[in-house]
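Hi R.,

Here's the chain you asked about this morning:
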Amino acid sequence: MESEAPKINVAIVEDHDIFRKRLSELLYFYKELNLTLVADSAESFFEKLERSQDEEVPDVVLMDIELPGMNGIEATFELKRNEPEMDIIMFTVFEDDERIFDSIQVGATGYLLKDTPIDDVVNAIKDMKEGGSPISPSIARRVFDMMRNQKEKADTDEVPFNLTPAEIKILEQVIDGKTNKEIAEVVFLSPWTVKTHIKNIYKKMHVNSRAAAVRLALKRNIV
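And here is the predicted structure, written out as tokens:
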């Protein structure tokens, strides 16, 4: 007798009360899924994740983009930095190129629109656990176009924002998720000097967080 395949642990991060409740109710009907975590904000999600037992840790997260406080793209960046094996599907009403590109660059594995039929959402979750990257059909062509355009520009664009070689090297370490202390050891500077460089990088790039700096650096092919 064949043993049943293990259930896929799923989390929902969605601030819209009615949609979150409805999606939760629908997913409960699928025996191959186990809804282990539901949160109305990124901050609440991280708090609940920290308290989760090992068997409750999600395999796949359905992440809304427009969240109060930390948005879904920033949350994805933080989550992939700490839990690189966890898969994230951006689940949103937005189709604009910037959000799609940012989501992919920070580590989202899929991008589905909220009007996707529930059977297709469940199939996307299962496909993801088998190595797929589910994307709504209306978005797929735009992703390919964006990637092609970025590749064509990569060898011709000048480095934006007037970043110095030293700042670019530090930015590379930031993208790798290193702390100021770890960066200091790599570039042979004091943590205080590294912190000063990072502040200057933020100022030049007109951002105010690591997630925003990484997102913009990848988008503009700075490193």
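One quick note: The CA atoms of residues 164 and 201 lie 9 Å apart.

Cheers,
M.
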